[in-house]
Specification:
zinc ion binding, DNA binding, metal-binding, 125 residues, mainly alpha, DNA-binding, 2 domains
């Protein structure tokens, strides 16, 4: 059985593994660990949540996808929380696909509208 995220129930298998989601154990450094625990407690809406030795957080909770050792960096503690990790992955894929389509359209338009039309027709078949 894979690791699991204590905040969103993501697991290190299946769709999460395929999308490069990484899992981090809570830090040993007291200041950083307290910041992580406070962030998870606030996200869960309870002060009763307590850290267990097996708890970990996934990379989906960090802006850059990984934590930072710098206390001034926004990824020093997790800041992104949501209810459904699979929904976050789906939306991320959709954003990436739209960005790729815009980039492809830009490159094709730079080459000329005739080429763009031909590439678009080929992709629709």
């Amino acid at each position: 059985m894979g690791k699991g995220c204590c905040a969103c129930k993501a697991v290190s298998t299946g769709v999460f593994k395929a999308n490069g989601v990484r899992f981090y154990r809570f830090p040993v450094d007291v200041k950083k660990r307290e910041a992580w625990v406070r962030a998870v407690s606030d996200a869960k809406g309870t002060k009763l949540w307590s850290l267990k030795s097996h708890h970990s957080l996934c990379s989906l909770h960090f802006i850059s996808g990984e934590h930072s050792a710098d206390p001034r960096h926004p990824d020093f503690a997790p800041t992104i929380f949501f209810k459904d990790a699979k929904e976050v992955l789906r939306r991320g894929k959709e954003r990436k696909n739209r960005a790729n389509a815009r980039e492809k359209k830009k490159v094709c338009n730079d080459l000329g509208s005739f080429i763009y039309c031909n590439i678009s027709k080929d992709n629709n078949n």
